[in-house]
Amino acid sequence: MPANAFVDRLNEQIGHEFAASAQYLAIAIYYDDETLPRLAAFFYAQALEERNHALMMVQYLLDAGERAPIPGVAEPSNTFGDVVEPVALALEQERRVTDQINALAGIARDERDFTSEQFMQWFIKEQIEEVSSMSDLLKVVQRAKDNPLLAEEYLAREAPADAGPDPTAPPVAGGAL
Fold first, then answer.
1. Sign of torsion over alpha carbons 26, 27, 30, 35
2. Which of 20, 14, 12, 8 is nearest to 96 (CA)?
3. What are the structural domains, with CATH classification, of the chain?
4. What is the pLDDT of residues 154-169, one digit of tens each?
């Protein structure tokens, strides 16, 4: 049984993950509207990934016999001054989520809730990758600010092919939706 303090914060984190998904969707739509399809596709994929993170957390709570009420989320930012601003916002968001994930792992450890601490390890690893990826993309988009097609070329050239689902990832509520 997870510690009550962990359950409370994980339920809050579910909201943060859905909010991140909504923000990435707004960013994807911005890039789609700017006819930057690779940037749009990158952020559509990020939106799905964040939604799945929330559903992984939901599944963990359900498996542990806990409630997982889905909170409402604030409206995402929908307007941006230039092609750099959305990626800068995304990096800021990933850094904030990293802090939240680390705090969750810390609560689990403090509460001697070793099962929940183990559950959080995958998310810690994921956040390292997310911050690194978004940092790299921000550098590219900053350099390509005056010619965003260069960022499109970068994504075409450097974006890894979809390797399929991570076999070490926690299960997603609802399966592979």
1. negative
2. 20
3. 4-70+77-158 (1.20.1260.10)
4. 999 987 666 677 888 8
